[in-house]
């Protein structure tokens, strides 16, 4: 018997006959790609087509091979195929439904690929025809909605979500994808929520559902009323919101775990031994090699949930049972190829044992802790564009959290203490902190630690000004809450003060280089006003009177930096250059800091002279400070505890447009429709005769 080989839709006999034989489905595709109606000669053509295994590669390739004119000639057959696919979605036989879903994916991608330069309207016309578009798309969306909400096959639900993701990401800029108008009119929002609220569906499809929702929310969000934004903002069902939180937490945890594994790999390898031998001179290079692809899609979903839905704020602090209590999935998880995170979903929303405990000696965790750990990793290296975008989005999310009254309440809650082991950038001048020595503290301490860590580690030539501004704003908003609610937080404030003073020192040392690119006075003013906040209101929120004394000690000890800053801004504010106005604002803001320095320095010198001490200890300086408060005169400065609230549309629209574009390209690139082999499907649907 002659052996047959299958390749690229062709069946080739290995006998003397060299003419290849095409498989049946390919022959049927070829009939569609003629100007004749394929059902003329075979009335059962469409019925038979959806019983054949789809050849995605051949169908997409065939569409892409045609030019625009050739495609227009077979438009009626393409429309017919699209309509019959939609009809097949209502069939009882799941194999037909699967084949129809896969065919739709190939059609949408193939037609779009061919029509990249044309408008969305042409694509709609090519796929369904203008006259039937509304009804066809309504039927398609209703069928997908039914399949997603039904009790049936998980494989079908998976393909439905893949088709929807294909539909959404078919253009780089999703707001130019006119097909999405039909997804807005025929909403699948409730179906997405149902997936997120059910543990089984969430485990299988939660990731795709969350990414799909995040993308749909961003369709023309500034130009028209987007129903997905409206609906997401009013969701109050606890199970649904917690489900969404679990999916996001799992994806971020997986990233954290991948990073930790790579970090341990580096530390235990030859490179680590070499570094120990020659000191820390290669530390920066070693760190750059620890690279795990960032997950902007899931971060965007977290942002939209936090930004749009006040009820989601409660989810941030909820401890997840899946994180604290191990359960095993009932069905085995198929092994999938290793792909970059952010392109494929985590295998399950049950966190593996490797994630337990999340931090040393901590048995419970929550989404906020996982997010802070994620942020501490991606914010380490902002040289890479994806990480820069991720770092910026992390800071935007933290900005929204820092402005929320309820979020602040649990951030500062003394009864909610956690050890949060943030990742710290390897630096030559400091030792690696011992993870187990971390104290249990309110979560706001971890947020402040993250801000301090960023301030200390990013003073470099390619200065990330925008991120620094956001970082200082977050600290300011937290201080405003503490002042307003008289929260006395037991935090190592000295670390923050020291970081801020070093930042000012860096701005002055690199004045010429930085001024060529940035208005450094905006940032300097914000830093100086943070000190003014502590000086003016510190007695209401610093933990003890001695903390307030230590603030004065730090200002006096580092007075040279403030003196230098004053000299710099005075010089620029007296010139008629472009920096005159911003520099003069800093000059005025320094009035109380200079008053403190000018008041206490002579007193300290006098004390040293009287007591014949060449260099005073900290306790001696503090004694001078405490005994000379009465004669100090400070000016009351207005608006220190006021801030402008975050506004996406006015300030961040361009950033989100570019971010969503990048996510759309990434999701489309990594969509896999053929992950379900025909054998697996046949096994699942073995009831079909």
From TrEMBL:
SMART domains: DUF1741. It is found in: Membrane. Signal peptide: none annotated. Keywords: Membrane, Transmembrane, Transmembrane helix. The keyword Membrane applies. Residues 435-671 form the Armadillo-like helical domain. One of its GO terms (cellular component) is cytosol. This is ARMD3 protein. It comes from Chunga burmeisteri (Black-legged seriema).
């Amino acid at each position: 018997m002659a052996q047959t080989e299958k390749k690229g839709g062709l069946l080739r006999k290995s006998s003397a006959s060299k003419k290849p034989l095409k498989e049946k489905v390919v022959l049927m595709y070829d009939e569609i790609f003629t100007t004749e109606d394929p059902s003329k000669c075979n009335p059962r053509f469409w019925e038979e087509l959806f019983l054949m295994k789809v050849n995605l590669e051949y169908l997409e390739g065939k569409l892409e091979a045609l030019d625009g004119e050739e495609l227009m000639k077979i438009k009626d057959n393409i429309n017919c195929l699209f309509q019959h696919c939609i009809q097949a979605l209502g069939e009882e036989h799941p194999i037909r439904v699967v084949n129809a879903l896969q065919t739709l994916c190939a059609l949408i991608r193939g037609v779009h690929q061919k029509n990249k330069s044309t408008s969305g309207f042409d694509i709609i016309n090519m796929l369904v025809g203008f006259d039937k578009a509304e009804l066809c798309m309504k039927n398609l969306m209703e069928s997908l909605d039914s399949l997603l909400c039904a009790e049936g096959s998980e494989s079908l639900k998976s393909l439905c979500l893949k088709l929807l993701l294909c539909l959404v990401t078919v253009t780089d800029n999703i707001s130019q994808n006119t097909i999405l108008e039909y997804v807005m009119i025929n909403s699948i929002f409730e179906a997405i929520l149902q997936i997120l609220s059910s543990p089984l569906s969430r485990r299988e499809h939660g990731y795709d559902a969350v990414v799909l929702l995040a993308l749909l929310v961003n369709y023309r969000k500034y130009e028209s009323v987007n129903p997905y934004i409206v609906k997401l903002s009013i969701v109050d069902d606890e199970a649904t919101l917690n489900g969404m939180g679990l999916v996001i937490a799992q994806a971020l945890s997986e990233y954290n775990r991948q990073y930790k594994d790579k970090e341990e790999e580096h530390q235990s390898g030859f490179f680590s031994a070499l570094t120990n031998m020659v000191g820390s001179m290669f530390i920066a290079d070693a760190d750059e090699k620890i690279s795990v692809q960032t997950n902007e899609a899931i971060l965007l979903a977290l942002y939209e949930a936090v930004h749009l839905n006040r009820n989601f704020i409660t989810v941030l602090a909820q401890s997840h049972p899946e994180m604290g209590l191990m359960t095993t999935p009932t069905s085995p998880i198929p092994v999938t190829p290793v792909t970059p995170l952010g392109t494929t979903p985590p295998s399950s929303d049950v966190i593996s044992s490797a994630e337990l405990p999340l931090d040393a000696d901590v048995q419970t965790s929550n989404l906020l802790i996982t997010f802070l750990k994620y942020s501490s990793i991606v914010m380490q290296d902002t040289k890479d564009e994806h990480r820069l975008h991720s770092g910026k989005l992390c800071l935007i999310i933290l900005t929204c959290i820092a402005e929320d009254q309820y979020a602040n309440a649990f951030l500062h809650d003394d009864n909610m203490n956690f050890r949060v082991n943030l990742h710290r950038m390897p630096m030559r001048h400091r030792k690696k902190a011992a993870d187990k020595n971390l104290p249990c503290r309110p979560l706001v301490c971890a947020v402040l630690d993250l801000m301090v860590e960023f301030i200390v580690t990013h003073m470099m030539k390619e200065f990330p000004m925008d991120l620094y501004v956001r970082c200082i704003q977050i600290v300011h908003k937290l201080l405003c809450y503490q002042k307003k609610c008289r929260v006395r937080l037991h935090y190592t404030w000295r670390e923050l003060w020291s970081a801020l003073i070093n930042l000012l020192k860096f701005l002055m040392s690199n004045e010429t280089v930085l001024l060529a690119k940035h208005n450094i006075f905006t940032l300097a003013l914000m830093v100086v006003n943070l000190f003014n906040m502590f000086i003016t209101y510190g007695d209401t929120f610093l933990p003890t009177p001695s903390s307030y004394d230590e603030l004065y000690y730090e200002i006096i000890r580092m007075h040279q930096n403030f003196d230098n800053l004053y000299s710099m801004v005075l010089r620029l504010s007296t010139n008629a250059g472009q920096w005159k106005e911003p520099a003069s604002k800093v000059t005025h803001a320094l009035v109380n800091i200079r008053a403190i320095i000018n008041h206490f320095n002579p007193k300290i010198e006098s004390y040293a002279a009287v007591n014949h001490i060449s260099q005073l200890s900290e306790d001696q300086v503090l004694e001078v400070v405490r005994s000379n408060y009465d004669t100090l005169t400070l000016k009351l400065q207005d608006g220190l505890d006021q801030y402008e609230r975050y506004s996406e549309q006015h300030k961040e629209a361009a950033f989100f447009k570019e971010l969503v574009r990048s996510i759309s390209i990434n999701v489309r690139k990594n969509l896999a429709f053929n992950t379900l082999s025909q054998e697996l499907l046949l096994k699942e649907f073995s009831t079909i005769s």
